[in-house]
Amino acid sequence: MNPELYFDKRTLSRLTWKESPMRTLALLIVNRVMRSPINTVWPDEIPMTTAEARPAPNVWRVLLAIGIIRQNGEYRRSNRAGRRASLIFQYQLSDRERAEAFLWLNKPKVQSPPPIASAASREAQGEMSIVSPSFPNN
Description:
3-stranded antiparallel β-sheet; alpha+beta
């Protein structure tokens, strides 16, 4: 999928995020909502560390603002420890195309593995030595 063909520049700029803990958390949330059988998620169902929990409210608000998710009207008390049974809303996927574009535009950059050294260079560096097998005499 190439989102540049489907969205205008302003929408693309809103869907493209810089590398940050907020982006990592947003990718986790969008992946979780899209994998859910009915495309819904409760915020306390998403596993996160204490460091990730700090920007979480902002991430939910931004995802709401750019139209990837929306509140579906369901709410309940949180089950997460430390939330003191605060009121939380259930979110559902609002626009699948935007969500797919968001994931595509923000996919983690895969670093290429280091080149594999040849056997001759490893032997010269002393990393590899040739050992002749010893066979028991029968």
